[in-house]
Design a protein that fits this description.
Blueprint lengths: L22 H4 L37 H6 L49 H9 L25 E4 L8 H4 L104 H12 L3 E3 L15 E3 L9 E3 L3 E3 L2 H7 L4 E4 L14 E2 L21 E3 L4 E3 L6 E3 L21 H4 L2 E5 L15 E7 L2 H5 L2 H12 L15 E7 L3 E5 L8 E5 L15 E2 L4 H14 L11 H13 L4 E7 L35 H11 L2 E7 L7 H10 L4 E3 L5 H17 L2 E11 L3 E7 L3 E2 L5 E7 L4 E7 L9 E10 L5 E13 L2 H6 L3 H15 L5 H22 L9 E4 L5 H10 L11 H12 L3 H8 L2 E4 L26 E5 L3 E6 L5 H8 L20 H15 L6 E6 L5 H5 L14 H16 L1
Parallel strand pairs: 2-3, 5-26, 7-11, 12-13, 12-17, 17-18, 18-19, 30-31
Antiparallel strand pairs: 1-27, 4-6, 6-24, 8-9, 9-10, 11-26, 13-14, 13-16, 14-15, 20-23, 20-25, 21-24, 22-23, 25-26, 28-29, 29-30
Bound molecules: zinc ion.
C-alpha cells in the first residue's frame, strides 16, 4: 500500500497555519492505492451500472471521472419547472401531507433569525437554571444588555459582570484554579490517578499541552487553564460586538486574570446528551414519522418511533450529517460541515413497519435513465402526457418504455402512482435480470463454510468441542426465504492447524471422510462433490462429523497454525462451486507456521507516538490485500472469530474480514465458563442474519455534487463501485459528498443508492434507496438541519481511516480544529452579535463537543502503550462498519440507574450522564456501549436490591466472577434482566457483562466508559474540551 502524504488543503476560507481540513487528506487512502491498476482476475458483473457498463471497465482516475462518464453532471435544463419531482414536496409546500407531529424542536417554523422562536433557548435555559445566571441562556436574556444570543443557538456565556461570586463559589465538586496546567486532548505523559480526583486539575499530572494552540497575546501568568471552565466566559465587555473580533485580543486567555479567580464550571450547565435524547423522545417517540418532506430531519436514533415511507428512504436505511446541503462549494468550505450519508442498505425493519416491496418488470428489467443509469424513482418527472420522463438526477429526458406507459392526472402524476412502489416510495427492490448476473447466468444460492482451528490450545480449552456442539443446533436456523421450507444455503466443514482437513459429508455416506491438504503454499480443494451440502439432507453425516472432530484432534500437540491458506481454501471452494458465501473461521493464534501470510509478532509498542505508529494498523504483508481482492471478486465474505491469548495481529488478519463485509469477533483469553454465552450468541446471531451476497453498491446524486469517499466494511476497486462480498443487516457505509457545481435550491439534492446483490436463496436483486435533501444559500439552514449522531459517525470513520496514513497527533488535531471551525463559522455567520467570550453552539450540534471528545479519547486515537495494539485495531475495524445508532452508544454509553427503577412500571429510568459524579455509593448502575456491559455496584447499595438481583445477603457476598445474572425470580431481577436483554436486542454484538464493585480493581476498566470525565489514559474531560474548543473558536474569530 502506498503511503500518500498528508495533502493539506487550506480548510478555511482564511487559511490558518497548521490547520488542515479533515476531509482532503483523509480521503479514501485506505484501499485506494490498489486502484492504480485493475487487478487481474476480477470479473464483476456490471452491477448497478447495468449492462451498458462494460465489465471492469471503469478506469481509475479522478473521482469525478466516473460521474462524468455516466453523465451525472449533465447540464440542467434551464427553465424547467422548479419542483420537478412529484414525490416528496418541499418543506414550504407541505400541505395535507404534513407530518402528523410537530416539527422538531430544532427546526423552528419561523425563519432564522427570529427572536421569538426560542424553544432551544428555553431548553437551554432549563439546563442552565442551576447556574442562576440571569442572562445565561437566550431564553433568559431579555433583560441582559449586550447579550443577545440567537434563538437557535445554545448559548454559553460567562458571568455578565466582572464578579458573580454567588455563582462561582467553589462547592464540593468545583475545581480549584490551576495555574499553568493544561489538560491536553492528546496523550498524557503519565497516567493520572484513578478516582474522582481525575477530574481535579490539582491532583492529576499536567497533561501534554494541547497541540498547536499557542495564543498570541496570551499573558504569561496563569496562561490558559482549561479546567477553569467557568471562564467561558470571562468577564464580559458590555456592548462588545462580534463584528469587531479584534477587540478581544487573546480571547479566553484574558479571563484568567487575577481579578477573577477561575472556578470550575458547573457540569449541569453544559449541554447534556441525556437531555437532548430525552427531549427528542418526549416530542417524537411513539409517533409515526412519515418521510414525505424533503430535507426533514428525522427523530434521533435513540428515539423509538414508527417510520412510514412516503417517498424518501427511512432513516433506518439512510441518515445524513445535514438534511440541507449548502448550495455552493464555497459555503461548504466555509462551514467545514461534512456532507455525508450513512447508508445501512439491509437495515432490519421492525415487524410493525412495512418490508420492502419487490418490483418485477420481467425480462424488461428495471426502468433506468439512459444517461446516468439512475433507477426509476419518485424523483423522475413524467411529461408529455406520460410518454417521456425527465431524470431528477441528470435532467435527461427519456422515453417511457411502452410496457411502462401510463396516463397522467391533472397534476401531472401518473395514474398508477400509488400502485407502483418505485414511483411513490423511497425504498424498494427490483428483480434483476440476467444482465445483472455474473456471466449472465443466474447465481447459485450461497454457501457457508465453517473452518475450525484445531491446534492444541483450542482443543484443550474446550473451544473445539463447544463449536461443534453448537453447530448442530445453529445449522437448524440457517436463514431462508419466508415462503421456503428449508434454507437454500449449503454448508461445508474444514479443520486446520498447520495443515488443512476437508470433510466429505455427502448424504449417502455412512461416515464422513477426511482429506488432508498439506501443501499450504498452494492450497487446493481436494473434493467438490460432497463438500458443500444441504444441511437437512446430510444432517446425520454432519452430526457424526461434529461429534468426531473433538475426538480426532484430542491428542494433537500441534501449536502452530496457518491462516491465509485457510481463507484461500474457503474462497477456492466457493469459486469451484460457483457460488458466493461466507466463511466462519474460528482462530486462536498468530499464524506462525511456514505458509503464505505467515506473521511475526510485531506488537511493537516502541512505535507508539512515532510517525510509524500508523503501520500498526496496516497488515504486515501484502498477501492479505491480494487475498482480500480475490475474496471480493468471488463473493466470499469472511467472518472471523478470534480467541487470542496474546498478540495475533488483528490488523493483518482482520483486513480480509473488514474488506469483504465480514464481522470480526474477538474474545480475549477465552474461558469457557465465562465467555461461552457471549460467543455463542454472536455465532447464532451471525449465522441467522439476513445477508446480501456478492453485492455492489452505487450512489448516484443530482447535478452539482457527487459521492467522493466511502467508509465501511467495503472494497473499492475504482472510485464509484462499492463492492461488498457480503453485506448484512448491521453494516453501514458512510458516504461523503462534495460539490462540483452549484446546487439548485428549488430541486434540492437528490441521492439514490442502488445495491445489486444475491439473496440467501440465490436470486439476483436490486435494492434501491432514495432520499431528497434541501439546499440553501443560508449557512444557518445547514446548521439547523444537522444531525450530531451522524456527524460523529462520519468523523469516527474518516479519522479511523486516516490513522492508516497519518500520524495520530495529526488526526486528533484535525478533529479538534474542524470542531472549532464548524462552531466558529456558525458563531460568525449565524449567531446574533454577542461577546466573543460566549460559547454559542448551534442547537442541533449542542452535544457535538462531548461526543467529539469521546471520539478523541477512543483507544484507536490515543497513542498509549498501555492499550494493546490488537485491541485498537479491532475497535477500529468494528467502528468502520457501524451505523449511527451503534456509534452513538459506542461513543456515549448508556448509563442507567437501576436502583431508581420502578419494578411495577413498564418504563425505564432515564439514563444519566457518563460521569463519575453521577454515580452514588448507594446506587446500582448499568452501563452499555454496544460491545460491553457493566453492572456497577456502590458500596452502600441497598441490601434488598442486592438480594433481589443476586440472591445474596450483602455487597461482600456478591460474586463478580460471572458474566450473567442469576435468575432470582424477584421483580428486581426480572426487570433488570429484561432491561439488559432489551438493550442487547438492538445491538449487533453480544455484550459481555462485567460486574464491578465500587473501589475494587475492575472499576478501572469501567471508569474508561465515563466519557465526560478525564480519560484514564489521557484525554480531556468534557468541561476541559469545551473550554479548549472555545479557546480555539475565539482564536479563529479574532
Ligand atoms: Zn439521469
Amino acid at each position: 500500500m502506498s503511503q500518500q502524504g498528508y495533502v493539506a488543503t487550506p480548510p478555511y476560507s482564511q487559511p490558518q497555519p497548521g490547520m488542515g481540513a479533515l476531509s482532503p487528506p483523509l480521503r479514501g487512502h485506505y484501499g485506494d492505492p490498489s486502484h492504480s491498476a485493475p487487478p487481474a482476475g476480477i470479473m464483476k458483473p456490471a452491477g448497478p451500472l447495468g449492462p451498458t457498463a462494460p465489465v471492469g471497465a471503469l478506469p481509475p482516475g479522478p473521482p469525478n471521472s466516473g460521474a462524468h462518464q455516466f453523465g451525472q453532471n449533465g447540464p440542467n435544463i434551464s427553465g424547467y419547472p422548479q419542483q420537478r419531482f412529484p414525490g416528496p414536496p418541499p418543506v414550504n409546500n407541505a400541505n395535507s401531507a404534513a407530518p402528523p407531529y410537530p416539527p422538531p424542536s430544532h427546526l423552528p417554523p419561523a425563519s432564522y433569525p427570529s427572536p421569538g422562536s426560542a424553544s432551544a433557548a428555553a431548553q437551554l435555559g432549563h439546563q442552565l437554571g442551576a447556574m442562576q445566571i440571569h442572562d445565561y441562556g437566550p431564553g433568559m436574556a431579555s433583560g441582559s444588555p449586550g447579550i443577545l444570543a440567537p434563538p437557535l443557538a445554545a448559548s454559553f456565556q460567562g458571568p455578565p459582570q466582572l464578579a458573580q461570586p454567588s455563582i462561582l463559589q467553589p462547592g464540593p465538586q468545583m475545581l480549584a484554579p490551576l495555574p499553568s496546567t493544561h489538560n491536553g486532548l492528546g496523550a498524557t505523559p503519565s497516567l493520572p490517578p484513578a478516582g474522582r480526583q481525575d477530574g481535579l486539575p490539582g491532583s492529576g499530572p499536567p497533561a501534554a499541552s494541547f497541540p498547536s494552540l499557542p495564543l498570541p497575546g496570551q499573558p504569561p501568568g496563569p496562561g490558559y487553564p482549561p479546567q477553569q471552565g467557568a471562564n467561558y466566559g470571562p468577564p464580559q465587555m458590555p456592548g462588545a460586538q462580534l463584528t469587531s473580533p479584534a477587540g478581544f485580543p487573546g480571547g479566553p486567555a484574558q479571563m484568567a486574570g487575577p481579578m477573577q479567580p477561575p472556578k470550575k464550571l458547573d457540569p449541569d450547565s453544559i449541554p447534556s446528551p441525556i437531555q437532548v435524547i430525552e427531549n427528542d423522545r418526549s416530542t417524537r417517540s411513539g409517533q409515526v414519522y412519515t418521510t414525505n418532506i424533503r430535507g426533514q430531519v428525522p427523530p434521533l436514533v435513540t428515539t423509538d418511533c414508527v417510520i412510514q415511507d412516503q417517498g424518501n428512504a427511512s432513516p433506518r436505511y439512510i441518515r445524513c450529517t445535514t438534511y440541507c446541503f449548502p448550495s455552493t462549494s464555497d459555503m461548504a468550505k466555509q462551514s467545514q460541515l461534512p456532507l455525508a450519508a450513512i447508508i445501512k442498505p439491509f437495515a432490519t425493519v421492525p415487524p410493525h413497519e412495512v418490508p420492502l416491496y419487490l418490483v418485477n418488470h420481467g425480462e424488461s428489467g428495471p426502468v433506468r435513465c439512459n444517461r446516468c443509469k439512475a433507477y426509476m424513482c419518485p424523483f423522475m418527472q413524467f411529461i408529455e402526457g406520460g410518454r417521456k420522463y425527465q431524470c431528477g438526477f441528470c435532467s435527461c429526458v427519456n422515453d417511457v418504455p411502452p410496457f411502462y406507459f401510463q396516463h397522467l392526472d391533472h397534476i401531472g402524476r401518473r395514474l398508477d402512482h400509488y400502485e407502483r412502489p418505485e414511483l411513490s416510495l423511497g425504498s424498494y427492490e427490483y428483480v434483476a435480470t440476467l444482465d445483472y448476473c455474473r456471466n449472465n447466468k443466474p447465481p447459485h444460492p450461497p454457501a457457508y463454510i465453517f473452518m475450525i482451528d484445531v491446534s492444541y490450545s483450542n482443543v484443550k480449552n474446550g473451544l473445539v468441542k463447544l463449536i461443534c456442539e453448537e453447530l448442530k443446533t445453529v445449522l437448524e436456523s440457517l436463514p431462508k426465504e419466508e415462503q421456503e421450507e428449508t434454507s437454500a444455503i449449503r454448508v461445508g466443514f474444514v479443520t486446520y492447524n498447520k495443515v488443512l482437513h476437508f470433510f466429505n459429508v455427502k448424504s449417502n455416506l455412512a461416515q464422513p471422510q477426511m482429506m488432508v491438504v498439506t501443501d499450504v503454499a498452494e492450497v487446493f480443494v481436494p473434493l467438490l462433490d460432497g463438500f458443500l451440502v444441504n444441511y437437512q439432507e446430510s444432517k446425520a453425516v454432519i452430526h457424526n462429523l461434529l461429534d468426531q472432530i473433538p475426538e480426532i484432534f484430542a491428542d494433537s500437540n500441534e501449536n502452530e497454525t496457518v491462516f491465509a491458506p485457510v481463507v484461500q481454501a474457503g474462497m477456492e471452494a466457493l469459486k469451484a462451486a460457483d457460488c458466493p458465501g461466507k466463511l466462519y473461521i474460528f482462530h486462536s493464534s498468530l499464524p506462525t507456521a511456514e505458509a503464505p501470510g505467515k506473521l511475526k509478532n510485531r506488537d511493537d509498542r516502541k512505535l507508539i507516538n512515532t510517525d510509524k505508529e500508523k503501520t500498526l494498523f496496516q497488515p504486515q504483508t501484502n498477501i492479505y490485500e491480494a487475498l482480500t481482492k480475490d475474496c471480493v471478486a468471488n463473493g466470499c465474505c469472511v467472518n472471523l472469530f478470534l480467541f487470542p491469548n496474546q498478540y495475533v495481529d488483528v490488523a493483518s488478519m482482520g483486513l480480509v474480514t473488514l474488506q469483504t463485509g465480514g464481522t470480526l469477533h474477538k474474545y480475549n483469553n477465552f474461558q469457557k465458563h465465562l465467555d461461552s454465552q457471549t460467543f455463542l450468541n454472536d455465532l447464532r446471531n451471525d449465522v441467522q442474519k439476513i445477508t446480501g451476497f456478492d453485492a455492489i453498491m452505487r450512489v448516484r446524486t443530482s447535478t452539482g455534487f457527487r459521492a467522493t469517499d466511502f467508509f465501511g466494511a467495503i472494497y473499492m476497486n475504482n472510485t464509484t463501485d462499492v463492492e461488498m462480498a457480503g453485506v448484512d443487516c448491521d453494516k453501514a457505509v458512510t458516504v461523503e459528498f462534495k460539490h462540483d457545481d452549484k446546487l439548485n435550491e428549488d430541486s434540492g439534492a437528490l441521492i439514490q443508492c442502488a445495491v445489486l446483490y444475491t439473496t440467501i436463496s440465490g436470486q439476483r436483486r436490486l435494492r434501491i434507496h432514495n432520499i431528497s435533501l434541501n439546499c440553501s444559500s443560508q449557512l444557518a439552514d445547514l446548521y439547523k438541519s444537522c444531525e450530531t449522531d451522524a456527524l460523529i459517525n462520519f468523523f469516527a470513520k474518516s479519522a479511523f481511516t486516516a490513522v492508516l496514513t497519518q500520524p495520530l497527533k495529526t488526526v486528533r488535531d484535525i478533529l479538534v480544529h474542524q470542531t472549532a471551525h464548524m462552531l466558529a463559522c456558525y458563531r460568525k455567520n449565524c449567531a446574533s452579535p454577542s461577546a466573543v467570550s460566549q460559547l454559542i453552539l448551534p442547537d442541533a450540534m449542542k452535544v457535538f463537543p462531548v461526543y467529539m471528545n469521546s471520539l478523541l479519547k477512543n483507544c484507536v486515537l490515543l497513542s498509549r502503550p498501555e492499550i494493546s495494539v490488537d485491541e485498537r485495531a479491532s475497535q477500529r475495524q468494528l467502528v468502520m462498519s457501524m451505523d449511527v445508532a451503534d456509534t452513538q452508544i459506542f461513543f456515549y454509553p448508556q448509563l442507567i440507574p437501576i436502583h431508581t427503577m420502578d419494578v411495577k412500571s413498564e418504563t425505564l429510568p432515564a439514563a444519566i450522564r457518563c460521569s463519575e459524579e453521577r454515580l452514588s455509593e448507594g446506587g446500582v448502575f448499568l452501563l452499555a456501549n454496544g460491545l460491553q456491559m457493566f453492572l456497577w455496584l456502590g458500596v452502600s447499595a441497598p441490601p434488598e436490591l442486592i438480594q433481589g438481583i443476586f440472591n445474596v445477603p450483602s455487597f461482600t457476598h456478591i460474586n463478580t466472577d460471572v458474566t450473567s445474572l442469576p435468575e432470582v425470580g424477584s421483580p428486581y431481577s426480572q426487570k433488570l434482566r429484561l432491561t439488559m436483554s432489551n438493550i442487547q436486542q438492538k445491538k449487533p454484538y453480544s455484550m459481555k457483562l462485567t460486574i464491578v464493585k465500587q473501589r475494587e480493581q475492575p472499576e478501572v476498566v469501567f471508569r474508561q466508559f465515563l466519557v465526560e470525565d478525564k480519560g484514564l489514559y489521557g484525554g480531556a474531560s468534557y468541561v476541559d474540551f469545551l473550554c479548549c474548543v472555545h479557546k480555539e473558536i475565539c482564536r479563529l474569530l479574532s
